[in-house]
Structures are given as C-alpha cells and as structure tokens.
TrEMBL record:
GO terms for biological process: L-proline catabolic process to L-glutamate. Residues 51-153 form the Proline dehydrogenase PutA domain. This is Bifunctional protein PutA. Residues 528-972 form the Aldehyde dehydrogenase domain. Its cofactor is FAD. Oxidizes proline to glutamate for use as a carbon and nitrogen source.
Length: 990
C-alpha cells in the first residue's frame, strides 16, 4: 500500500474525515463530560512555573514571552560572559516587564526583571567595571531562572535522575506510566549518532532494571527514540544507506527493549521523512515478527495534523496484520507545523501537507482516534492530548468500541486536566518525559511553547477566564470553508492578478520526482553551432533594426510574451531539469530550484515592466503638463555564466526584453544547449528572432567582439571580477555614447558566528552554503569566522557533517556534490588547495581522496586570519578564521576586517542577539545579509541579489530597481496655454 501524495486540497481531506466520524461521536455529550474538568482546573489553577501559567502570564505573542523563550533557548549554551551579558541585555531590553503580569508571584518576578534591566548595558556595548559586576549578577540570576524553567519541562538531566522523579510521581499516582525521551536533535555527524545510540542503550538498561519483564509492555515504562538522532543522513535521498546502516542500530535497541518487556516508540518527524520512516518501521516490524513475535511493545508515533494521517493508520494497521503483530501507536497532533508550512512555501508545492485550520487538525485527530480504536487486534492506541474535549470524546468512542487504550500527556503540562480525568476514569495515563541536560532543552522547549502557546490552543485558553467554557469546548466537527487559513504556496505573493509563484516538486515523494527521472532518459543535449566573432557588427546592426520595431510593441504585449514563456517553462520543468543535470552537472535539487528561478524572473520582470513603464505625471506650475517616461535604450549584450546557465541567462534576457530593448545573448561556453532551449521558448512565445539572438562562443572572442561592436546600448554581465574589469575598460575605451554596464561578480562571502548561535543550525547553514552546488555559486560561503568560545566544537561538527556528504554523479538522487564545471575549473581549485596545504591547517580529507576527474570533495582549512583570505576560490572550499580574543574581541571589528577585503556580495550573521545582528548588518558593506540561515538561494522579488565593491555594480537582480538601468529617462513638458490661455485655471475661478 502506498500513501497518497501529501499535497491535496485541505477541504477535500476534512470532508472525508468528517464523513468517517458520522454516527461515531456525540460531541455534546463529550463537552458535557469535559466541562467539570475545566471548571475544576480554573478553580485550582496550576502553579506559576507550570507551562499553562507561563503562557497565560507571558504569551509567546508578546515581547515578554518571546524574550523569555529566546533566553531559555540560548543563554545556557553561551560559554563567555560578554556574550551572555549582551544576550540578556538584548532580550530583556526588548520587553517591558513592568505591569505585564496578573498574579502576585508573576508581578514580583516581573518587578525583579525590570529592576535587573537597570544593571545591563544598552545596545551591543561593553559595560564599565561597576556595571559589569552588576550585569554578571543579573546574568547569573537569569541563568538560574532558566535552569528552574528547564526543570519544569525536563524530568531529569540523567536517566537515573528522571527515574527517581518518576518513582516519586508513582507514589502520588500509582496509575502513571512513563515514556522517557532522551533530549537531542538530529545527528549531524556519525559521532553524534553513535553518542545518541549509547544514550538510548544506557537508558533502556536503566529502565529495564526497574521493570517487570513478565508484565505486558503497556504496563511498563518505555522509551521514545528519534531516527534522525541515530543517523546523520536520515533523509529520503539516502534511503539505501539509511536502510543499511540505521536499521541494525535501531534493532539493537529493539532487542534490549523486547527482552525487558518495555515499549519502544519511534517518534514522528517531518513530512518529507515519512515514507522513509515507514520503510525503516516495516523492516523492523518484519524482524520483530521473525525474532521477537511475543513482544507487543514496538510502536510508532502518528501525527494527526498531516493530511495523510488516516491513510497512514490504515497502512500501519495493515503492516501489523500482515506480520501478526500488535503495535503500539501514539497519536499526537504534531510539533513541526510552522516548519512544514515554510517548507511547502519555499518549494512552491501545490498544497500544504498539514491542516491550516486548528479545528481541522482536531477533526483529523478524532477520525484517527476512531480508526485506531477500531483495530484492537492490530494496534494499542496511545492518545497524547491535553484537550479536555478531545479526552472526553476518546473516552466515549473507546467505551463504544470496547478497545484497550491509554492517554498520554507531556511532563510539565496538562497536570490539572489529567488530575480531574483520573478521578473520573480508570484509563491508564502515561507521561511523555524528556530527559537531558538543560542546555539541550532548545528544540523541545521551543516546539512545546509554539505548539501549545498559540492563541487558539486549548492549553493557552484553559486558564483564561475570558474564554467561555462553551467556546473552549466548542465542537470542531464542521468544515469552515474550502480555502485554507493561509494562501497556498502558488499564491504566496498575493491573489490574482499578483505574480504567481513558480511551482516546485518534493523530491522525497516518489510520484512527484518520477517525471524528472523519466526526462533524464529521454532528454538529449542538443548541439549548437558556434558563432563567428567576425559577425558581431552585423549581428548588432540586425539587433538595432529589430529594436526600432520591438520598442514600439506595447509593454503589455511584451509582458504577455514573457508570461507565456514562463508558463511553457513551468510545464517543461522535468526536461529543463534533465538538461541542467546533463550539461551543467546540477544535482536534482539545484536543477529544480534553477528552473523555478527562471520562471520567477520571467513573471517578475513582466510585472515590473508594466509597473515602471507607465508615464508619471509630475507637479508643476499651472498652464503646463510635465510627464516622466522610461524608454528603451537599444541592443543589449547579455553575457551569462555557466553556474546558473538557465536562471541568470533568462533573467538578463527577460529584463532587457521587458523594457523594450533587443538582446544579443552570449551564454557560457560550457552550457549553450540550455540557453538555446530557453531562447526557443521565448521565440515560441512571440519574441521576434532578430530581437533575441543567441550568439554562442568563447568569451574572449565572441563576448569581446560583441562588447566592442558599435551600436551596443548596454552590457549586462555575470561572472568573475577580472572579466568584469576587462569589459568595463573596453566600454570606456569606445568612442560614441557612454554605455552602461551592469556587472554581478564574485565575492569572498563571509559568515560571522558568535557564541550565542546554536551550533547545529550553524553547521547546517555552513554545509549548505559552502558545499551545495559544489561551491559554484556567486553567493557561496568562502570564509567562516567563528567565535573562539565555540570554534572547536563547531569545527569538529563541520568536519563530521562534510564527511557525510556524497560526491559523485549528479543524476543520482543520493549525490550531494557533483563535479565542477570542467577540467580548467578543477585544476584552478587544486592549485589553490596546494597553496592552502602550505599556508593553513587542513580540516578535511586531502584532495587526493576525491573521486577523480572534475569531482572535488568538500575541503576546509583553518587560516590564521581574515586578512589572509585574499581571493575567491570558486569551488567547494571553505576557509575558517577565529575571533573573540585580542584585537578581534569586538564583532564590529570583525565586520570591518571583512569590509576591508573589498568584496560585498553576501554575508551571514549567526547570533541570538537581535540588536547585534541589526548593528552588524548596518555596518557591513554587503548586498545581501542573511541572519541565522544559509546565505544561498536568493529568491526573485524576495531577496533581490547583487553586491558592491569588487562584487558588482548593482542594481540588484530580481529587485524593484533592476529594470531602471535598462532604460533611459525622458521628460515631456507641454505648455498647455500656447493655444490662447489657461482654460483649466479660468474654470476654477468662482
């Protein structure tokens, strides 16, 4: 059985879920049963430190709640006092704790925070001695407060400590059971994965020592594990490797749990990992059936907010029956909602894989609950929820089904509701209990706060007396409307007539990627005849003749042609992706992104041309009219690079055509076939052949001849700084009009990381920025500047993560790093590596370990200083320098050193100190600045791209100022009184 594609209309899915619940649930009765529980909780509210109380006093939608969340997320991991002081001052300084709270204890806490702020520095400036002593005291107190906060949501920092706490809870409520979750996010390195494996192993051993192996697993405590913590490449593209390496690791844990009679649950993760998780789960289920058939403790967590949740339950049930197993199934709402929404928007997917209305998720949860209760032979349901209405509905359906089940809650949450539930029912309750160091609390705490702190969540509203109980327990069993709560990804930029977002595909979904692989088999790289450079003057003359006709074409007609070409390119995405893989050696992910960027350029510049080329009336004295117009300049030479042979080529050409200019397009010598196919689309859309000419050949002959030819009205170029200088000099030396040059060139792109940044997020951003596309992006990370306090740990993680990348054939989905464009590029990179071997400290395997030919494995070096990086290495080579000591103790000085390199294309800043990020961005002479993310993948109309200094002339491509450079300005003034008086003025006289 295959699951459906996750991207389906939400209303259709909800209608199906509602139909599955018909006759199965009396919500009125459920709400009546839940009402006394809510009333009791409101009469006896949880203590101040409980999450429900915290969310009520400091909601995450407020500046105060956000400040506390950010401090809890970052402060414990900051190793140096200066950064800890700056972080505390930044976050507390952004909120007003005076007069924000309701209860007596929280008012005292707010007053203490407000008073403490007086000892903290303002802005990112070091305090004086006395202030520093006061600031250190405030930070120490804040650290203690955050640790106390952590204790509310982490059962123990070690498994032994957690089990002691659990035994104490057992003495108070004997019916409680526990499922221990060892805190930690996905592994970035194999060392991380092995450390998590050891942690799980030790935990199972400890739990087993206190368990009764003779009891059924549902009566014992258990453990939850994350598959992404046990393998550094837990992703669909690495399926074969995951099945080979991960399944044996998990089986070790399964054997230990089975022998002790424990339950072991595989936690749910992101949507793009679902099919892979199922493959792993089924492989393990088959082994359980063969080797431990009596064990009834193997389980899987299921997310009700996924639109495929009900089909997933049917699939898991079928697996259980096929292998004659009884599986444990934990039903949760889901904790990655915001990440799933963003991913769908970024990929341009047709629909969201999760529900966008809260009550739709509630409907799905109830439908899934009924399905689980209907299969007692195959599954033992575990319902994780803090919603009193949902609990009452489950109890009602379970009584009708006469099926065994259990309820679950998170440690530190829902205690009040479950206190009342356990008084009125004997249903077993299990506590999902995180275990780990408080500094590892980050992802867990943030997810819990976001999941339960939303204004619409039951937990958030439970203690709010302003929310009527009837409203709180209102039935979710209705379909509001056909539209999702958010614009669908194709309509990300607004409803029609706004620009439609380009459509992408999810490579993790087999039916969506199948057309790409099919296109690879049927797509050939066409041959293209080289242009004779001697014909350049003739080509320019033909372009000038065409210009006289093309400029008269209404801008609306020109824009319509670009949109038609964009639609055609969107339809032919698989074929163009295959071309990019074959001719430019793109990986599939990069190929899809590039086709989408080209589509976006065509649509964006069509819109922009219609916007800017409308005449603008200017104010002036009575009796005359003044109008500003933009006009086309003439033939433009467009010289594009091989690293984005479709997107940049299309963007240059579309900008010139949209504004009424004609084009002489000179594509990169290495990738002419992609350019040829793009030109064919534009010609088919109505652009005249002589208005858009493709002139393929070497830059030093064809490109140079076109630049030097008389009659060229402008040149747009993307490539190296050296070639841009040559073009600039050639244009300056020409007689006749001064010809504009738009140049986007390279950069020594840097990323500054302070000690408040999360190392795992830094490493993800670094590996993507430095090594994706084999480092052959203008925006690729070349220089990483790490704070000394975290440098060793981050460097070690980068080494491990980079070592996990696969270099090879870009046509394979498993390939991360393809070959560089040609032998000349490879030789140039190897010369740089030889130099660095003698000047810097090598951090990764020698270049000789690369797979040969034009393949170069990721390389990294620690260099003595920022100043020692003097040139761009256009390949997968990262150089790392440190700051935080001596002359470079101030991050502002780091930015000045980066500015002094002379380039100014992209900059990354990784910090949790918001004011620092803004101050450093203001100081940097850089075109694109990215905070707490990677520095590649600029999106048309969202992140206009381009730099300054040695990185280009501007204006920024894909931005609202770009098309103006392709135009001349014309002002028309008409004396309206010339015909004998100012009639308009006279008519206004009373």
């Amino acid at each position: 059985m295959h699951l459906p594609i996750p991207y389906r209309p939400e209303a259709d899915v909800v209608s199906h879920r509602l139909a599955s619940l018909e006759g199965a649930l009396d919500w009125t009765a459920a709400a009546a049963a839940a009402t006394p529980w809510v009333e009791a909780v409101r009469r006896h509210p949880p203590p101040f430190w409980a999450m429900e109380s915290l969310l009520r006093e400091y909601p995450i939608s407020s500046a105060e709640g956000l400040a506390l969340m950010r401090l809890a997320e970052a402060l414990l991991r900051v190793p140096d006092a200066a950064t800890a002081i700056a972080l505390t001052a930044d976050q507390l300084g952004r909120a007003d704790f005076e007069g924000t709270a309701d209860s007596t204890l929280s008012r005292l806490s707010s007053a203490a925070i407000a008073m403490s702020k007086k000892f903290l520095p303002e802005g990112d400036h070091p305090p004086g001695l006395m202030a520093k002593l006061g600031a250190r005291t405030v930070v120490a107190a804040t650290l203690r407060a955050v640790q106390l906060l952590g204790r509310q949501f982490v059962l123990g920092q070690t498994i032994a400590e957690a089990m002691d706490e659990a035994r104490s809870a057992h003495r108070k409520q004997d019916a409680l059971r526990f499922s221990y979750d060892m805190l930690g996010e996905g592994a970035r390195t194999d060392a991380d994965a092995l450390r998590y494996l050891d942690s799980y192993t030790q935990a199972i051993g400890a739990i087993a020592a206190g368990a009764d192996a003779a009891r059924a697993p549902e009566h014992n405590d258990g453990i939850s594990i994350k598959l992404s913590a046990l393998h550094p490449r837990y992703e669909d593209a690495q399926r074969e490797r995951v099945m080979r390496e991960l399944v044996p690791r998990v089986w070790q844990l399964c054997e230990l749990a089975a022998d002790a009679g424990l339950n072991l649950t595989i936690d749910a993760e992101e949507v793009d990992r679902l099919e892979l998780s199922l493959d792993v789960f089924e492989a393990l289920a088959a082994r359980v059936a063969a080797e431990r058939p009596q064990w009834r403790g193997f389980g899987l967590a299921l997310q009700a907010y996924q639109t495929r949740a009900l089909e997933l339950i049917a699939h898991v049930t079928a697996v259980a029956r096929r292998h004659k197993l009884r599986l444990m199934c934990r039903l949760v709402k889901g904790a990655y909602w915001d990440a799933e929404i963003k991913r769908a928007q970024e990929l341009g997917l047709p629909h969201y894989p999760v529900f966008t209305h809260k009550h739709h998720s509630d409907v799905s949860y109830l439908a899934c609950a009924r399905a689980l209760l209907s299969a007692p032979d195959a599954v033992y349901p575990q319902f994780a929820t803090h919603n009193a209405g949902t609990i009452a509905a489950i109890l009602q359906m379970a009584e009708a089904a006469q099926a065994p089940f259990e309820l679950q809650r998170l440690h530190g949450m829902g205690e009040g509701v479950y206190r009342e539930v356990m008084k009125s029912t004997d249903a077993p309750v299990r506590v999902y209990a995180p275990v780990g160091q408080h500094k590892d609390l980050l992802a867990y705490l943030v997810r819990r706060l976001l999941e339960n702190g939303a204004n619409s969540s039951f937990v958030n509203q439970l203690g709010d007396e302003d929310v009527d109980i009837g409203e709180l327990l209102m039935s979710p069993l209705w379909l509001e409307e056909a539209n999702p709560a958010l614009p669908l990804p194709p309509a990300l930029y607004g409803p029609a007539p706004a620009r439609r977002n380009s459509e992408g595909i999810d490579l993790a979904v087999e039916p969506m990627r199948a057309p790409l692989l099919a296109a690879l088999e049927t797509t050939a790289v066409p041959g293209i005849e080289a242009f004779d450079a001697a014909g350049a003057p003739k080509a320019v003359a033909a372009s000038a003749a065409a210009f006289r006709r093309w400029r008269k074409t209404p801008v609306e007609a020109r824009a319509a042609m670009l949109r038609q070409a964009a639609d055609a390119l969107q339809r032919e995405l698989p074929r163009f992706c295959a071309l990019l893989v074959k001719e430019a050696f793109k990986t599939w992910g990069d190929a899809v992104a590039e086709v989408r960027e080209a589509v976006d350029f065509l649509r964006y510049y069509a819109d922009e041309a219609e916007r800017i080329m409308q005449p603008v009336a200017l104010p002036g004295p009575t009796g005359e009219s003044n109008e500003l117009r933009l006009t086309a300049r003439g033939p433009w030479v467009c010289i594009s690079p091989w690293n984005f042979p479709l997107a940049i080529f299309t963007g240059q050409v579309a900008a010139a055509l949209a504004t009424g200019n004609t084009v002489l397009a000179k594509p990169a010598e290495q990738t002419p076939a992609i350019a040829l196919e793009a030109v064919k689309l534009l010609h088919a859309a109505g652009v005249p052949a002589d208005a858009l000419q493709l002139l393929h050949g070497p830059g030093e002959t064809v490109g140079a001849a076109l630049v030097a030819a008389p009659g060229v009205a402008g040149v747009v170029f993307t490539g190296s700084t050296q070639v841009a200088r040559i073009i600039h000099r050639a244009l300056a030396a020409k007689d006749g009009p001064i010809v504009p040059l738009i140049a986007e060139t390279g950069g020594i792109n840097a990323m500054l990381v302070d000690s408040s940044a999360l190392p795992e997020q830094v490493v993800d951003a670094v590996v993507q920025s430095a090594f994706r596309s084999a480092g052959q992006r203008c925006s690729a990370l070349r220089l990483l500047v790490l704070h000394d306090g975290i440098a060793e740990a981050v460097i070690e993680m980068i080494r491990g993560a980079a070592g996990e990348l696969t270099a090879g054939d870009p046509a394979l989905l498993s390939t991360d790093v393809g070959p560089v464009i040609d032998g000349e590029a490879a030789d140039n990179i190897r010369r740089h590596l030889k130099r660095l071997d003698s000047e810097a400290k090598r951090l990764l395997a020698p270049a000789s370990s690369s797979t040969g030919g034009n393949l170069i494995a990721p390389q990294a070096y620690e260099v003595p200083s920022i100043d020692s990086v003097t040139s761009e290495i256009f390949g997968p080579v990262l150089q790392i320098a440190r700051w935080g000591q001596g002359e470079l103790s101030d991050p502002a000085e780091v930015i000045e050193r980066i500015n002094a390199l002379g380039y100014g294309l992209t900059l990354g800043i990784q910090t949790r100190i918001d004011s620092r990020a803004q101050a450093l961005a203001t100081r940097a002479h850089v075109g694109n600045i990215y905070v707490n993310r990677n520095i590649i993948g600029a999106v048309v109309g969202v992140q206009p791209f381009g730099g300054e200094g040695l990185s280009g002339t501007g204006p920024k491509a894909g931005g609202p100022h770009y098309l103006y450079r392709f135009c001349a300005e014309q002002t028309v003034t008409v004396n309206t009184t010339a015909a004998g008086g100012n009639a308009a003025l006279l008519s206004t006289v009373a």
